[in-house]
Amino acid sequence: MTPGRPHLPPGGLAAVSSALLAMSRHLEVRDVLKTIVASARDLLDAEYAALGVPDDHGGFAQFVVDGVSDEQWKAIGPLPRQHGILAAMLHGNETERLADVRKDPRFEGWPDAHPDMSDFLGLPIRDGDEVIGALFLANKRCPKVDGGCGFTPADEELLTLLAQHAAIALTNARLYERSRELTIAEERSRLAHELHDAVSQKLFSLRLTAQAATALVDRDPARAKDELHQVAALAAEAADELRAAVVELRPAGLDEDGLVATLRNQVQVMDRAHTAHVVFDSCGVRALPAAQEEAMLRVAQEALHNALRHSGAARVDVVLEKPRDDRARLTVTDDGCGFDPAGVRRAGRHLGLVSMRDRASGVGGTLTVHSEPGKGTTITLEVPGA
Ligand SMILES: Nc1ncnc2c1ncn2[C@@H]1O[C@H](COP(=O)(O)OP(=O)(O)OP(=O)(O)O)[C@@H](O)[C@H]1O
Ligand SMILES: [Mg+2]
């Protein structure tokens, strides 16, 4: 064989080229594997072709065959393990071209329903130093010369070329699947935070206001009526927030009224709904960039919500100010029971603190949680861009 002069299969360069194109056209790993195997079998005129992607436990994460019917495949039974000649390709990083695989000393037999195979050509699929799979063929269809291996050195060369492209196609498909998984996971966590921040807080206030109304009905029907109006208003807001979270809009109110007015308004609602005294104060802060305003509002809501739900505070202060020309600062302080922030388990059901940190870092800000059992809690968010 002359180096640099590839031996082309029947169909020539066009057949190789269309096989390579077909491999890289697919985005799903499984489809890429199937195309590789079918192309290899076709181009090298073999009866059987297979590709195995090893897992870390001595088996195969994926194993794709071509030339075997579904019934035959089922009858063969469990997937092969990484031993014998398969292991040699995967771990020894060797190309194997054998006249009769059954006569090789490493051959360990196969299950009853396994088709009979003799001549064999297999090699590792490498991505850099890593072996990501083994690609192999059995039973060359054309007649053998003098009982030797049906697969020629030219076949070996062609399969090597296919394996190199298979590595690229496989790596791309994996990256694609991975990035899609990440996008879905990110989207899910964003929605969970959004729903947690916006809707569950509104519903909590709604429940308290409804309870207040129930308690007042007999004693003071007029005030009960006011509370019920409040219930209706909160329910409408919760519906708006839900819609906003779903379609990725900004929190209802922020666009029309801005951060200061929205926050003042929400603090008033909380003050009315809870026995704790909830107070808002702002000094010097005007409009901030949209993302910062949203982060400020969400953190304020969660901090306020936590103070009212967990601390038993008599008073909660929400303050918006400008410590420097180019920064805005939000503090939410309660005089409640306090807690040990380091003791909160990060995993599990507690999303609030995690969500506040995410919000802060999402806009280049910093979140500080200052709390000690018995000494109340202060949550501070500082963002640039005031
Ligand atoms: N202001 C506070 N005063 C006292 N304890 C608090 C305060 N804020 C948070 N905590 C404690 O920290 C824990 C974690 O708060 P976090 O907001 O992360 O979760 P959560 O409020 O329990 O649940 P959710 O996911 O609904 O927010 C709370 O369960 C509570 O024990
Ligand atoms: Mg919380």
From TrEMBL:
**What is its cofactor?**
[4Fe-4S] cluster
Q: Supply the InterPro entries for this chain.
A: GAF, GAF-like_dom_sf, HATPase_C_sf, HATPase_dom, His_kinase_dom, Sensor_HK_TwoCompSys, Sig_transdc_His_kin-like_C, Sig_transdc_His_kin_sub3_dim/P
One GO MF term, please?
metal ion binding
Chief localization class? cytoplasm
Location in the cell reads: Cytoplasm
All copies of domain Histidine kinase, residue ranges: 190-386
Q: Which reaction does it catalyse?
A: ATP + protein L-histidine = ADP + protein N-phospho-L-histidine
Q: Which domain of life is it from?
A: Bacteria
- Keywords in alphabetical order, please: 4Fe-4S, Cytoplasm, Iron, Iron-sulfur, Kinase, Metal-binding, Transferase, Two-component regulatory system
Question: What EC number(s) does this enzyme carry?
Answer: 2.7.13.3
- Cellular component GO terms, alphabetically? cytoplasm; membrane
Is this entry keyworded Flavoprotein?
A: no
| Functional description taken from the UniProt entry | Member of the two-component regulatory system NreB/NreC involved in the control of dissimilatory nitrate/nitrite reduction in response to oxygen. NreB functions as a direct oxygen sensor histidine kinase which is autophosphorylated, in the absence of oxygen, probably at the conserved histidine residue, and transfers its phosphate group probably to a conserved aspartate residue of NreC. NreB/NreC activates the expression of the nitrate (narGHJI) and nitrite (nir) reductase operons, as well as the putative nitrate transporter gene narT.
The name under which this protein is listed is: Oxygen sensor histidine kinase NreB
State the species of origin. Streptomyces finlayi
